[in-house]
Amino acid sequence: MVEPMADPEVRDALTELELYLSDTLPPLVVAGSAEILLKYPPALVAATIRSWTGAQFSKGPEASLSDYLFHAVKKIHVLGEFRLVPREALGRYLEGLKALVLADCPQEDQAMLAENLSRLSESTGAATASPVASLQRPHAAPRGTASAGVSPTVAAQERRLSLILQRLESQVLAGGGGGAPAGRSAIAETLAAAARESPNAQDLEGALSKLRGMGVEVGTADVFRALASSLPAWVVPPGAAWTGKAPASTALDAMQRMVAAAEDPLEGGRRFQELVRAAVERFNEGSLPQAVSTLEAAERLVADKKVDSGTLDLARRRADEGIDSERLRAAAESPAQHDTLRRFLAFFPGLSPEGLLEQLTREEKRDRRRLLLALLEVHGAPARAAAFRALAETPSDHAGADWYFRRNLLYILRKIPRPADAPTAEEAEVTARHADLKYPPPLLKEAVANLGQLKHEKSEAALTSLMTDIEAALARPDAPYDAKEMAGLLDRIAGALARLGTSGARRALLVHAEKKDPKLGDPGGRLAELAGQDLSEDSELVSRLLAELKSNLPFKLFGLALHQNDQIALNKISALSGTPAPAVRAAFEEIVSRFPDKEIARAASRALAAWKRGTAPAAATSSATAPPSAAASATLNGDLEIFGLPALLQSLSDSGASGSLTLRDPQGEVFGAIRLKGGKLRACQSGPLSGDDAFYQLLERPVPGQFQFVKMADAGDETNTAALKEVLPLTLEAMRRQDELRQASVIVPDDVLLKATDVRPAPFAGEKDGGMQKALWTRVSRGATPRECESEIRTDAYRIRRLLAHWVEQGALSTSP
User: Fold this and answer.
1) Residue 755, SS3?
2) 10 Å Cβ neighbour count for 690?
3) Cα separations (Å) of 561 from 466, 503, 792?
4) How much is the CA Rg of the chain, to the nearest whole Å?
């Protein structure tokens, strides 16, 4: 024996055998070592079994010495049943090993052990893949019992963890030793479940070691990734009308526990970075709500002082660099995702309003600048306030090379709606600084557009002054400006003055329209910007326009109709087309009567017809109009993957909508129907399920597809309002159920074969429907899979899987792949 023990390969093989006997390594991993040991006499392994058994027995015998000896031989026998080593060679080897093991057994138990060893091949390998579960070990309790000094909750966690690892091990072994056949999703679910159920860091590390032993290379980063992907694809909307407490998430709790339980600050910092990276990966893969939930778990760790500021800053900076720009762009272009996207951006200083503005100051790529501006729009009012501060602090005594940055700041101020309490005078003053010919035209255009939105005397003065400056500059023979570009700028100024709607702004526009210099473009035509505005209150302006209109109408000389200037007359008609004052109406009627075949008569006729209908004339709609809002539409359609059913329901609830929501799968088949009344749930149907069960099922088992919401009036609805239910509490309960459903589904997957044992099934404390429990037990004990049970029993998936997992945990059901 001295000779083989001198071989390092043999020593390593014996060490692996001991780990295998303790269930630390699975059969697949130890197969190679077993083949090495088969080359030597059985006495070598018998000595190892003797040593291992003595160590186990000395820690407090929960079973007899013969039980431990049987367990060891049975574990080696299993290697042959799984065909991991040659069966014939192993059979001959075991005959010699049994004799040696019997010699180590107490005399009073030898007969029983001999009988048990003789019947080794009568049980299947699947049933004995982990037979040591029936023995007391340092970290494993006997089936259905709790370890000494361990609370029932922890004992239940240990039991579930053992079942979870057995399930993955059986999947690995089902591949015939050719590697883990379990797909990425199965491994991820197992990792997530193991992390949830591990009561402490030591148990989690033990679970990870077992997975590694099965050939599944995993680390804490993989666990964070798996936990993040197991989260519900929805977050509670900010400001939702809900005063209750959101259900706890076992996945988020596991994430925080993993970071907080790190042995030292360096390890904790590394895990925290892995947690944040997992959130970024979920975002990059298109799961924004899961990313937000994961980051909020990270924020709670910071709030609880489990992570220091230096670690937080490092994690943010490193993760920020890995965020997919195209995913950011797509989310920014989807208004339905803005609320959730803001929560994601808030975690990263570089994506805060200040951080985005800082990037704008040095970004040279046009596409990237557009993305930064889009993200600033997502931030809304805080981004607008930050942009205004930056603009106000920028020196205005020179044009500067940073004009493009100022242009971006003005763009942000224009695109993001101005809060009602924002100081108009201050904003008008800061914006007016940029209405100066020393700046490039692109910056001037943004300044003009902004001033047109700020109804203040400073805006009027700045626009009028800029228009006068351009007129004077173009009048000079050596003007260093492009006449066409300046004419376009004058068009914008005219529109901005018209939008201000003040008497002074309109007069400035009228004065400009009287200019005759061709370098100015078409000053008279710019009066059309007044089209659609009712000028009745400004009688002086109306009188001037009417006088100029009449002076430019055709007149007859010696019986011939002579034209003054039809275009000037048309411009004046357009400017007055929104003013149904008696004097204007009379002038237009006279034009129609006197010049029926002229264009001016047709223009006047259109205005008269519009006044008769009580609508704005067609000329007033020359600018692009906004599309109708969803609230004004009788029907709302969309993609469930973009909106998300929970977020869609919450939006309809918040708006107090009444109507019918129809859900269709990618093939166009209806899989759900929900009726709302005043934003509350009136009825719900999902397949054979109705009411609350149907609602829960739709969120527990999300299906991609399309939705259509058709509004209906509330009037005359006889529904009992007391029976209507709030949407958010139901949604939160569905989230809790989905979380537990994922855990139960790891223990009892869709197509697992369940078999009743001799253990009597105990009722589940949380299930009050005895009839449903009886029906489920009848079906599953007759061979129905969990998937089949869900299709046959009329309740949501959560209640069925929860019961099945409970029966497996208590030993009333056994599982096999």
Assistant:
1) strand
2) 14
3) 41, 36, 90
4) 39
CA atoms of 439 and 434, how far apart (whole Å): 7
Task: CATH number of the domain at 759, please.
Answer: 1.10.10.10
Give the list of residues 6+ apart from residue 40 with CB closer than 8 angstroms, or none.
4, 10
Q: What is the pTM of this model?
A: 0.71
Q: Which residues contact 654 (CB under 8 A, 6 or more apart)?
A: 237, 240, 241, 679
Same structural domain, 490 and 468: yes
Same domain, 12 and 130: yes
Q: What does the alpha-carbon distance between residue 689 and residue 696 come to, in Å, rounded to a whole number?
A: 10
Cα atoms in the Cβ-side hemisphere of radius 13 Å centred on 778: 8
* Each residue's pLDDT tens digit, 630-645: 343 457 888 888 778 8
Which ranges in 501-636 belong to alpha helices (H)? 503-513, 539-551, 566-576, 582-594, 599-613
Domain count, the chain: 8
Domain assignment of residue 462, yes or no: yes
If asked whether residues 607 and 496 sit together in one domain, one would say no
Whole-number Å distance between alpha carbons of 405 and 393: 13
Rounded Cα–Cα distance for residues 258 and 271 (Å)? 8
Give 694: exposed, middle or buried? Use CB within 10 Å, 0-12, 13-18, 19+: buried
In a domain, 648, yes or no: yes
- What Cα–Cα distance (Å) separates residue 348 from each residue in 279, 307, 315, 322? 12, 16, 9, 12
Beta-carbon contacts of residue 76 (< 8 Å; ≥ 6 apart): 34, 45, 90, 94, 97
Domain hosting 185: range is: 152-218
Does residue 805 belong to any structural domain of this protein? yes
* pLDDT tops 80 at residue 14: yes
Domain end among 475, 501, 530? 530
